[in-house]
Design brief:
Structural class: mainly alpha
Largest sheet: 2 strands, antiparallel
Distance between the termini: 20 Å
Helix content: 25-40%
Radius of gyration: 14 Å
Number of strands: 2
Number of helices: 3
Strand order of the largest sheet: 1-2
Order of helices and strands: EEHHH
Length: 109
C-alpha cells in the first residue's frame, strides 16, 4: 500500500487513550462502533450503500465490494483517522466486522 500514499505514520494505542501523531496533534483511538459508523458513512458517500445495509455481519460481497473497492475504503479510513494502515490482510468472504478488526489491529501498539 505504500506506493498509494506517502501519509505519515502514527503511534497509536487502544481503549480511548490519546495518541500523538508525528505532526504533534493528538487523537483518541476509535472503538469498534465508531469505526463501524465511519465505514457506514464512507460506504454511503462513495457507493450509495444505505447505513442499515452495512452491519458488522454483512459480507463485503453482499455490498458489491471487491478487493480494489475495499482498498479504496481503507485509504479513505487512513485519511479520516490520520493514520497509515500497514497490515491489510483481510480474510476471504470477509464481513465488515473483519474490516473493523483489521483497522483495530493496525491501531494497536
Amino acid at each position: 500500500l505504500s506506493f498509494f500514499s506517502t501519509r505519515f505514520t502514527s503511534r497509536i494505542t487502544l481503549n480511548g487513550t490519546n495518541h500523538v501523531h508525528q505532526n504533534g496533534s493528538t487523537m483518541t483511538t476509535p472503538d469498534a462502533p465508531q469505526i463501524l459508523s465511519l465505514l457506514q458513512r464512507l460506504l454511503a458517500d462513495k457507493f450509495d450503500i444505505p447505513k442499515e445495509s452495512a452491519s458488522p455481519e454483512t459480507r463485503l460481497t453482499e455490498l458489491g465490494l471487491d478487493s480494489m473497492l475495499v482498498l479504496d475504503v481503507l485509504l479513505e479510513v487512513e485519511d479520516e483517522l490520520g493514520v497509515k494502515l500497514d497490515d491489510l490482510a483481510i480474510p476471504r468472504n470477509a464481513t465488515l466486522a473483519d474490516v473493523i478488526a483489521v483497522i483495530q489491529r493496525n491501531l494497536a501498539p
